[in-house]
Design a protein that fits this description.
binds magnesium ion, binds adenosine-5'-triphosphate, alpha/beta, eight-stranded mixed beta sheet, seven-stranded mixed beta sheet, 2 domains, 30 strands, 658 residues, GMP Synthetase, Chain A, domain 3
């Protein structure tokens, strides 16, 4: 778990430095009407498989399974022998049960006034037409389809059309380069690419088709490129191209959804690449849909008749797959999809959308929350957000300060915040408060959900006592777990199942507090070893963010002759704070006071931006390269490559302050 240069020093368990005494009990009315109560924990503990069977029964199966779980570690099969159609579950059954006029998606384009509304009946027609179109293009069950699209309704429609016919989709985030797209098309050996001319980002059209052309020129296995016209900008076309409005529009809107095996593949999705080369994660149908639907029902307390739900993630990430497309649709929810960025045409855009659609459940990421904090409290204050009742967070540990800000300035101090820990690999939420049950602590993911057996273990794989820190591990298979890394069972075994005997290793550090509640402490690869103490990045960053002048912080361990590693901090100041000569000393003292002298950073660098992945996560490995004066590593998943230059420029001016 320690960086190679420090291996040899005997590390202790991950230190537990941050103390937090705030608690937020669930609102009484929410608790009284909650979808899931404390009883679920006991039921799942008494019989985990029976618990997941009941969750699976919320879906419509063409054929019931024979065996709930077949576990030949580390390969799991769930609901073996069962058959279902994921698209039927997400669309048709709601129409058949009389909910065809219910809105599935309110779509909000980035250009003002550009909106579309799709009811479940509309979605059924569109998905059926798209499924017929795929068949006409020669796509059949088991074929791979790469999808490279903006956040427009045709994106979920394309995914559902694949699911309907049993083709395996591989959605590639629309911000990726031609080479990233090409490598993902190749890895999955996709025969069709679905794309658009472009989408709208930051107030202007942003082309996608040229990137596809560049990638596909080197992918002879791609037979066709299906192109949605979104921006209407001129695009070059070639013999492989087919317009969506030509092909899909003339198809019949009738299509029979054949059942597929519960273990047939649903999709491949590449991880964000925060820690290195992205992995092609394979998910299958029955278990995946069971857990995404159940967790969406439980963690967001979704009332499909009355809630308006908005997850702000990009569908190109797992959060969008599980909590914009599959979970919400399986539950018959009404969701909002927004195409653009939060600052277009102004920094209140998100809150304007909340006000406009009377959003009741909002699910977003800490990186966005910290940005909103930086922009100032006065912006959300201008909007009526009294419709909100539950707030969610995902993607990184949420600093207590950001959590409390979110609760206060977005949630009006009445909405529970659910901090949901999970990964592309887990497919669905694993550790999270339940909004009607948990007295949540700011910054804690709290307890594993019912049916999930996760723990914090030490180096030897033994559970740490309350108050201790170590590695997060999952002890039992779960329905939406990845089945393998596409085409690479060995990498699957090595990455996730070799660190601890018989346990899944997610690669995250964690601690159990005095009550046994779980706190995620960041990537194990990022842990800093300072004078023999393993210190988590999360705790030091949270201490920095708790200073009124700091909006965002990232810390890394850099080799140090005295302490093994020393903490180097990169901070972004809040809008109102000035960079003063003594800011570094002030922040260093603040951290020492909050966490103890061991966590005092050696250096504080004030920077204008932090390197983030396209999914908004801080890439500490690049900052480590800067802090140790190495050449910068793989930046292909970095959102903005110029950021590293801005940061490197800052370095010489800030040597050790001791
Ligand atoms: P790669 O695996 O390629 O490095 P990645 O890990 O960033 O990419 P994702 O699957 O999108 O790809 O991210 C999952 C990771 O995000 C988790 O392992 C964890 O580190 C972090 N994470 C997600 N949600 C939370 C949360 N609520 N609290 C703490 N960490 C979280
Ligand atoms: Mg990961």
């Amino acid at each position: 778990m320690v960086a190679p240069e420090t291996a040899g020093n005997e590390p202790q368990a991950l230190s537990n430095l941050l103390k937090e005494n705030r608690r937020f009990a669930p609102p009484a009315d929410l608790a009284a009407a909650a979808n899931v109560t404390e009883a679920a924990y006991n039921e799942a503990a008494a019989d985990r498989l029976a618990f997941w069977e009941r969750a699976a029964e919320r879906l419509t199966w063409a054929k019931r399974w024979d065996t709930t779980l077949e576990w030949k570690a580390p390969f799991a099969k769930w609901f073996v022998g069962g058959e279902l159609n994921v698209a039927y579950n997400c669309v048709d059954r709601h129409v058949e049960e009389g909910r065809g006029d219910k809105v599935a998606y309110h779509w909000e384009g980035e250009p003002d006034g550009d909106t579309r509304t799709l009811t479940y009946s509309d979605l059924k027609r569109e998905v059926s037409k798209a499924a017929n179109a795929l068949a006409e293009l020669g796509v059949s069950k088991g074929d791979r389809v790469a999808i490279y699209m903006p956040m427009i309704p045709e994106l979920p429609i394309a995914m559902l059309a694949c699911a309907r016919i049993g083709a395996i989709h591989s959605v590639v985030f629309g911000g990726f380069s031609a080479s990233a797209l090409k490598s993902r098309i190749d890895d999955a050996d996709a025969k069709l690419v679905i794309t658009a001319d472009g989408g709208y980002r930051r107030g202007k059209p942003s082309a996608l088709k040229p990137t596809v052309d560049e990638a596909v020129a080197e992918c002879p296995q791609v037979e066709h490129v299906l192109v949605v016209r979104r921006t209407g900008e001129d695009v070059a076309t070639n013999g492989k191209d087919v317009w969506w409005h030509d092909l899909v529009e003339r198809q019949s809107d009738q299509h029979t959804a054949e059942p597929h095996g519960a273990e047939d593949p649903l999709y491949i999705l590449y991880t964000s690449g925060t820690t290195g080369k992205p992995k092609g994660i394979l998910h299958t149908t029955g278990g995946y849909l069971t857990q995404t639907a159940w967790t969406h029902h439980a963690v967001f307390d979704l009332k499909p008749e009355t809630d308006i739900y908005w997850c702000t993630a990009d569908i190109g990430w797992v959060t969008g797959h599980s909590y914009i497309v599959y979970g919400p649709l399986a539950n018959g929810a009404t969701s909002v999809i927004y195409e653009g960025t939060p600052d277009t045409p102004h920094r209140g855009r998100f809150w304007e959308i909340v006000q406009k659609y009377k959003i009741t459940i909002l699910y977003t990421a800490p990186t966005a929350i910290r940005t909103f904090m930086k922009w100032g409290d006065d912006i959300p204050a201008k909007y009526d957000m009294s419709s909100l009742r539950i707030l969610g967070s995902v993607g990184e540990p949420i600093n207590p300060e950001a959590y409390v800000w979110y609760r206060e300035h977005i949630g009006g101090e009445r909405c529970p915040v659910v901090d949901t820990w999970w990964q592309t690999e887990t497919g669905a939420i694993m550790i999270s408060p339940l909004p009607g049950v948990t007295a949540a602590k700011p910054g804690a993911a709290m307890r594993p959900l019912p049916g999930i057996v996760a723990d914090v273990v030490d180096d030897q794989g033994n559970a740490v006592p309350n108050g201790g820190g170590g590695f997060l591990a999952v002890r039992e298979p779960w329905p939406s777990m990845l089945r393998t890394i596409w085409g690479d069972d060995q990498r699957y075994i090595d990455t996730y199942w070799s660190r601890f005997e018989g346990m899944y290793f997610p690669g995250d550090g964690a601690k159990k507090d005095e009550d046994g509640d779980l706190w995620l402490l960041g990537r194990v690869d990022d842990v800093m070893l300072v004078s023999g103490h393993n210190i988590s990045t999360t705790e030091v960053e949270s201490a920095l963010v708790s200073h009124p002048k700091v909006a965002e912080a990232a810390v890394v361990g850099a080799t140090d002759p005295l302490t093994g590693q020393a903490i180097v901090s990169f901070v972004i100041l809040r809008g109102t704070a000035e960079e003063s000569p003594d800011i570094a000393a002030e922040l260093r003292d603040h951290v020492a006071k909050t966490l103890g002298p061991i966590a005092k950073p050696r250096q504080i660098l004030v920077v204008p931006e932090l390197p983030k992945t396209r999914s908004g996560k801080i890439m500490r490995r690049l900052l480590r390269d800067v802090a140790e004066n190495r050449s910068i590593g793989d930046v292909t998943t970095l959102a903005d490559s110029t950021v590293m230059n801005l940061i490197s420029e800052k370095l010489p001016s800030a040597k050790s302050e001791d």
